[in-house]
Amino acid sequence: MTPDTPLSALRGVGPRRAADLASAGLRTVGDLLARFPLRYEDRSRFRDVSTVSAGETVTLAGTVVSCGLRLTRRPGFKLFEAAVRDAGGTIRAVWLNQPFMANVLTRGADVILFGTVERRDAGGLQMTNPQYELPGRGNRESIHTGRIVPIYEKAGCVTCRVQRALVHDVLEQLPADAPDVIPAWLRQDLGLPGWRDSVAAAHFPDDSSSIERLNAFRTPAQLRLILEEFLLFQVGIGLRKREVDAERKTRVPVVDDRVRAVARALLPFRLTAGQRQALKDIVDDMTRPRPMQRLLQGDVGAGKTIVALLAAVVAMENGLQVAFMAPTEILAEQHYLTIRRQLAPAGYDVALLTGACAARERRSILGRLAAGRAQLVVGTHALVQQDVAFAKLGLVVVDEQHRFGVLQRAVLREKGWRPDVLVMTATPIPRTLALTVYGDLDVSVIRDLPPGRRPVTTTAKAQARRAEVHRFVRSQLEAGRQAYVVYPLVEESSKVDVRAATEMADHLAAEVFPEYRVELLHGRMRPGEKERVMRAFAAGDAHVLVSTTVVEVGIDVPNATVMVVEHAERFGLAQLHQLRGRVGRGAHQSYCLLVYQDPPGEAGEARLRALVETVDGFVIAERDLELRGPGDFFGTRQSGVPTLRSGDFVRDRDILEQARQLAAAALEKEPPESPLLSEARRSWGDRFGLAAVG
Ligand code: ADP
Ligand code: MG
Questions:
Q1: How far is C-alpha 512 from the geometric centre of its chain's CA atoms?
Q2: To the nearest whole percent, how much of the chain has pLDDT over 70?
Q3: CA 560/CA 546 separation, integer angstroms
Q4: Ligand 1 pocket test: which of 336, 403, 552, 556 has the largest number of ligand atoms within 8 Å of its C-beta?
Q5: What is the predicted pLDDT for the residue at 463?
Q6: Is the four-CA dihedral 174, 177, 181, 186 of positive or negative sign?
Q7: C-alpha distances out from residue 46 to 39, 60, 346, 525, Å
Q8: For residue 302, which atom of ligand 1 is closest to its CA?
Q9: Is pLDDT above 50 for 299?
């Protein structure tokens, strides 16, 4: 048996179990061992029936004095009961609807029970569905009771108990000299235990281990395995970075006075210091032979678009094409309008390619792109995935906002394109996650905001005070400003949500703000209709824009100063921060009013409080990560967040940082075919599930 042995080859794992384990990401022995228990339970101290009382969870060892199956009044419902006696007395154990227990427990058998004690109405003590074990059978070490036991998450039909037995079997069969991917020099330096001992101790710790430490995942064995996982991941990132560094672009742009003059002529304002630095980073990258792989971070409103556009000008002035990708069609349309307006004086050929394009228009755009006539194309991520051909694609800008489509880079490479890639994100990413998800990107951060911006004033209000909210909105409308009212979308384009938003828009239009123009924007509208609404709002013709979360990203209307979020308790922190970023974009003081259903719930309240307390996106990002964990932070799978089996991005941040440094050292020292590097290569897809990403 080796870590590579498929689980389906194990005794007791048939096709059904193998499939269920596989759907939990467990295919090999190595997978099974790398995955930590959820927690540990101390079942090592035996109690005595005379000392236990109702409500306690205890381990008992005794002998079955009588047992049998009983029918109950409910037809077909069977109950197996056993009287178990130890030195202190007798307790009743019952198993509901588990008739097979009749084949497991017989009179006179020794048994260990673990469970919560209840007092019976009839008097006496009872355990219902306790964990059990028959000690001394075939010399088997007890694994489910009588020790500190690991508790695993159920995988389909494969219960915790079955997994525990599986892991135990596997550990017994592993050769003593099982290979260790952490190089010996590193283990010695850090005094790390070996792999074989570590997996054994992480799953079946001996009784002297501290249960608190185990449950904090801080025993030496656990720490070593966490470090190993992060090390593999960081070495994987290092290897990929090496590959990219060796790539060469087909044409390296040059920035001379002519290019500078064109860019300057297009610039509508003075760049902030942060924008200037970011632009310098980007242009430096672009004028180097290896393709740029840069992440541009900046809070909403920091002014990332103009920086990307100036980069686009550099590419276009060098005869290269630019693809500008947005996360949604609405945003693509909006970007297109802004970009076309800003680039108009230079006379570039700019196209918009979305699902809404008519077939003939689409063919024409594709033709212009393939012939190299269209210089910049705006679209969604589908741009690079479809049958789009570019004559000379030089720059790809990915405006991710807070969605993370690391995927596209892989697609680009598959197509044999080696353009410069600029990924922009509006959600400041906590450092830990930036290191992981975007670990192989260079990062520029715009920390300052364009001049004259005032921080948005944020308040949370219970629904009962909605009238106050409406009065406030009215006062802003009277002052000539505009307002957003946002409804949560439970499912994108869901009918029910659309109806709720529609009704609210009607209500606001007819009863609350009858003298103002209220418009509705939602995901099920036809693109032309959406554009009409957005145009009207952007032009100031519509005063209140009621919408589902589709406007959360990108829309830019400086005269809008109020953002009302209904059911704010349902939104995630990052999302709320994005929504708030829609206002505060002009010279006027702006307001964000979070209307919540009372009580908002503990988590909801924590989020609302975070929003009210700070406008700093970086602080919010850290808070969000703590509140939700990394999976939810990024929202979706395929986001580039690796599947972890041992480590945890929040709990183990410090180890991740350490692993990053060690990985750099290991990449210098270890030969390409060393166990660590080979395993890191393999892990990327197999273990971390990132094959299709990055
Ligand atoms: P984001 O980083 O959220 O994408 P945008 O690029 O949409 O931000 O910029 C937000 C707004 O700020 C836009 O209206 C843009 O024209 C304006 N803006 C950007 N940079 C500056 C600047 N240096 N001075 C003044 N206004 C700016
Ligand atoms: Mg933007």
A1: 39
A2: 90
A3: 13
A4: 556
A5: 92
A6: positive
A7: 20, 5, 83, 66
A8: 2
A9: yes
